[in-house]
Amino acid sequence: MDLNKKRRRIALGCEGSANKLGIGIILHEGTSLETSTSTVLSNIRHTFVSPPGTGFLPKDTARHHRSFFVRVALQALSAANITIPEIDCICYTKGPGMGAPLTSVAIAARTLSLLWNKPLVGVNHCVGHIEMGRAITGASHPVVLYVSGGNTQVIAYAEQRYRIFGEALDIAVGNCLDRFARTLEISNDPAPGYNIEQLAKQGGRVLLDLPYAVKGMDCSFSGILTRADELAAHMKNGGKGPDGEPFTPADLCFSLQETIFAMLVEITERAMAHVGSSQVLIVGGVGCNERLQEMMGAMAAERGGSVYATDERFCIDNGIMIAHAGLLAFETGFKTPIEESTCTQRFRTDEVLVKWRK
Amino acid sequence: MATDSPLTYPCSLTLDVPFPDARLANVALQALRVDKELSALVQRELSAVDSTLKVQYKATTNRMLRVAVNSFFDSLALVLEVMEQLDVDAIEARKTQEKTG
């Protein structure tokens, strides 16, 4: 059966590479690649939030995903209001991400695939973010900045691959933010980065000196985190800032954001110059940050371009992006045999052959 | 360097997990056997005989055995819950209940 002759194609996607468990159902309609439309039928997510001062560990995160999978799946099916025969494939995150959480979701996805007799499609998490960003914003040829707790990459599409132009050399920018939130014991609910963003709005009286670590097309965050932790300890001991006045957690959050976001803007701009693009698409959880969007927007405007970003439904890890990217691959004939439906913590974005684009 | 002596696996556990039918036992088998054991100190064999999932674990120490089997039970519990709540007939029953309820 030629799938593309079938006017309505539906995929269920399951995501659990970090602390968010997401299940989404997507509909593709239309018979040609150029004119097909995508509709979100449902997008349900449940986040595992750990106490302030802690991060989420693989074993606990996997336990959370196992506990909530059935509940979230039932909600997704109910909200989409479709029947099982209408579903064409089950998509799941193959990687990259945390081992135990990834595998817990894969086991459930395999079970559904076998019970419902539907093919499985393994999806690269990063490609999921990119394809969802493209679909929602309609950006045609952007440089993509993918920034989250686990990933920091500058990506541009060329000849059926999402090619990595620059990336973080050590830890992801979101990891730097999440770990600094632990240092300050900021709440992880709804997300540590979100709470840092709100606290940063109260800062700005002083810009504290943090190392600026751009290295060519790449950047590095572990040194900045170390210095930020040192400053936080200094502050707790009653230390003063560079102007001889005490400084606050809000000042620290402000300074951290200004520094790391300026670095991201620089490496993105470098890729844009390289590739000759004026559009930027920001995806990934850190992409929700309005200050980052503002700074990126200023740079893009100077180049006669613009920034595209999605809201928290799509920039934070979710199941619908896995369903969408998976269905795109499935429509080109891609399937993952069940014996090969493993997960992998390392899965480079450019390993995926993007057959659904020219 | 002298060749290392092969690992022995003195600690073992056998489980026979009953399922309502052979179809479900096979679904569990296929879902659970894909992922390799994380440690070389643990060996696992899975098979389905009629409606029973047969599980054979061997490990170098009791601690490794306990850790591996506990992890297997967590995954098995997930498979069972998905079967109970999301199998085709369960979804149908839920729909009928919603219409009449």
From TrEMBL, chain A:
* Enzyme class (EC, first level): transferase
Q: Which UniProt keywords apply?
A: Acyltransferase, Cytoplasm, Metal-binding, Nucleus, Transferase, tRNA processing
Cofactor(s) needed by this chain:
a divalent metal cation
| Pfam families, sorted | TsaD
Query: Which residues are noted in the entry as a divalent metal cation-binding?
Result: H125, H129, Y146, D317
Please give the name of this protein: N(6)-L-threonylcarbamoyladenine synthase
Can you quote the record's cofactor note? Answer: Binds 1 divalent metal cation per subunit.
Keyword Cell cycle tagged: no
Automatic annotation (TrEMBL), chain B:
Name the family: Belongs to the CTAG/PCC1 family.
Instruction: State its location(s).
Output: Cytoplasm; Nucleus
Q: What is this protein called?
A: Transcription factor Pcc1-domain-containing protein
GO annotation (BP), single: tRNA processing
Q: Which organism is it from?
A: Apiosordaria backusii
| Pfam families reported in the protein's UniProt record | Pcc1
Entry annotated with the keyword tRNA processing: yes
Organism domain of life: Eukaryota
* GO cellular component labels: cytoplasm; EKC/KEOPS complex; nucleus
Q: Which UniProt keywords apply?
A: Cytoplasm, Nucleus, tRNA processing
Query: Where are the membrane-spanning stretches?
Result: none
